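Subject: sequence -> structure tokens, single chain

Hey, anyone have a minute? Need the predicted structure for the following. Not urgent.
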Amino acid sequence: MYLMQEILQVANGRNGEAVKRLQWIHSLMQSQPGFVRAQIAQYLGNSMRHLVLRMWEDRESWDAFRATPEGSSYPQSRPEGLYAQQPCGRDWRLLQESNGRATGNFLVRSEFDVAHDRWDDYLTIRKAQDRIHREAGGFQYAWNFKELGEGDGALLLVRKTGREDHMVYVESMLKSQLRDTSPQGVSTPRGDYMEYYEIIDEVTP
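Reply:
Had a minute. Here:
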């Protein structure tokens, strides 16, 4: 699965306008071949910052949509001054996913730099963490992506029922034991170790 991630800082007083526009853009994608889902998530540390995730079966499906009249024209219709800064986006490929039985709109986002040739260790650690998430409760899924291009960037998205269930995981003795017994030097966090979001809109085919 291919993921286009954007981080948007909306101009003051234009939050509702920005969300409606994103919903419209995602409605253009909804019926396109290869479309998987699109999410709008509001950063819980700043209500004017949004994480936008657009998922496709592969990069070719995204490129095919962008070649349509709708896909090529929507960026030109962006209202002036809608964003306080230029949108920041990157491309990712799904490497591993785990699923639970719960549902929720609490999203935890983390990025890492993975040491060269340590991807197997990285994904093994992630699988072990997913088992702890399941035991902690409130676990819907964990998706692990690799940044497209020449770098070794990793993106982790964990969806849970709420902050309370996530804090059970954070404070788990099993998580502490895993940290103490896991291989060292596998990855380094980028920026804040964890960012918390609420998914406020989701579109699927």
